[in-house]
Amino acid sequence: MSDKRLNNTIFLMFLVTENYKRAHALSNKDFLKLDQQFAILNYIAECPDIFDSMTGQEITKEIDQYVSAV
What pTM does this model have? Predict the structure, then answer.
């Protein structure tokens, strides 16, 4: 993975995390518990292109669907 792609992926992980926490009023600790259970950050890292052009609502919906499917 190129440095540019890696940096973009890390940035998307941050954006998705912050958006999801805000949408569900989660603390960092609460989000990390969810991540341990459902590997949310790994999901984002595996397919960052999915999140690249999504709105905040779409991001939340995508993560909610992923969590409910796991």
Answer: 0.88
